[in-house]
Structure formats: C-alpha cells, structure tokens
Amino acid sequence: MSPLSSHALIACVALVIILGVYLVYGAPSRPDR
Question: What are the record keywords, sorted (predicted)?
C-alpha cells in the first residue's frame, strides 16, 4: 500500500467525520421550520 493512498484515505475519512459533526451540531442551532 502506498503511503500517499493511506494519507488520502485518512484525509477523506476525517473530512467526512468533520462534515457529519458540523451538520449534527449545526442543525439544532439553526432555526428549522
């Protein structure tokens, strides 16, 4: 396995997790109709 591929995979996973947390924490804060 290439170190670059592993790094890209980790970055992708981290981005998805951050996005999920951002949405979960931002949903209740925002006024939902």
Answer: Membrane, Transmembrane, Transmembrane helix
pLDDT tens for the chain, residues 1 to 33: 688 899 999 999 999 999 999 888 876 666 665
The enclosing H or E element of 33 equals none
- Dihedral (Cα; 20, 22, 23, 27), 10-degree rounding: 150
The gap between the terminal CA atoms of the chain, to the nearest Å, is: 48
Token pair in block for residue 20: 């999920």
DSSP element (H, E) containing 21: helix 3-26
